[in-house]
Design goal:
The complex is a heterodimer of chains A (116) and B (117). Chain A is an all-beta fold. Chain A contains no helices and twelve strands. In chain B, strands 2, 4, 5, 6, 9, 10 and 11 form a seven-stranded mixed sheet that branches. Classes of the chains: A mainly beta (116), B mainly beta (117). At the A-B interface, strand 5, strand 6, strand 10 and strand 11 of A face strand 4, strand 5, strand 9 and helix 1 of B.
């Protein structure tokens, strides 16, 4: 069975500082994809970044980077230079090729608060 | 640029009532899913479909029915609403290319906030 664990229900960060949101996963799939989504207070789900299990390099998208440690089964999201608009709920998610490549499972989420 | 459209955005039901949450996508995606979001539990998969005429159960299917008569539409039916079904519901779609490449993200609707009293 696949599982995503986000152990930080809430995080605070000072504006302009970097923050790391933790995500660990469990899967028996040899091939899988890891995703991060942002959910602002307005409620929509916004895709941020993707990491493939066979990707050699950590994914980056602007201020977002994914610290992928395959042996530890972790896929932490790093947000650099935090902005007030980064205050939101963040979800780590996974899809596995052998368990239905289209079925996405989600962690419980981390609520990030950015302080001015 | 419609993407995935869910209706309604808000709904209040009385216990025992039935209703259908609508979901439509205009991206010709094969795969569609319904999730419910509850505090502290993330998004949990209710039902999914891999194409017109094909549906299957997710983690929490009890109390819900789905059908997929067209590629575009994937309605979710609550048969007899219960307070435990108070939640935010999301519909999502993925292009088939995402099945094996897995580098395509799921596209989500705006969500439906359902309250059962």
């Amino acid at each position: 069975a696949q599982k995503i664990t986000q152990t930080q229900p809430g995080m605070f960060v000072q504006e302009k500082e970097a923050v790391t949101l933790d995500c660990t996963y469990d899967t028996s799939d040899p091939s899988y994809g890891l995703f991060w989504y942002k959910q602002p207070s307005s409620g929509e789900m916004i895709f941020l970044i993707y990491q493939g299990s066979y990707d050699q390099q950590n994914a980056t998208e602007g201020r977002y980077s994914l610290n992928f440690q395959k042996a530890r089964k972790s896929a932490n999201l790093v947000i650099s230079a935090s902005q007030l608009g980064d205050s939101a709920m963040y979800f780590c998610a996974m899809r596995g090729r052998n368990t239905g490549g289209f079925k996405t499972i989600f962690g419980a989420g981390t609520r990030l608060f950015v302080k001015a | 640029n419609a993407g995935v459209t869910q209706t309604p955005k808000f709904q209040v039901l009385k216990t025992g009532q039935s209703m259908t949450l609508q979901c439509a996508q205009d991206m010709n995606h094969e795969y569609m899913s319904w999730y419910r979001q509850d505090p502290g539990m993330g998004l949990r998969l209710i039902h999914y479909s891999v194409g017109a005429g094909i549906t299957d159960q997710g983690e929490v299917p009890n109390g819900y029915n789905v059908s997929r008569s067209t590629t575009e539409d994937f309605p979710l039916r609550l048969l007899s609403a219960a307070p435990s079904q108070t939640s935010v519901y999301f519909c999502a779609s993925i292009s088939r290319i995402g099945e094996f490449e897995m580098n395509t993200e799921a596209f989500f609707g705006q969500g439906t906030r359902l309250t059962v009293v």
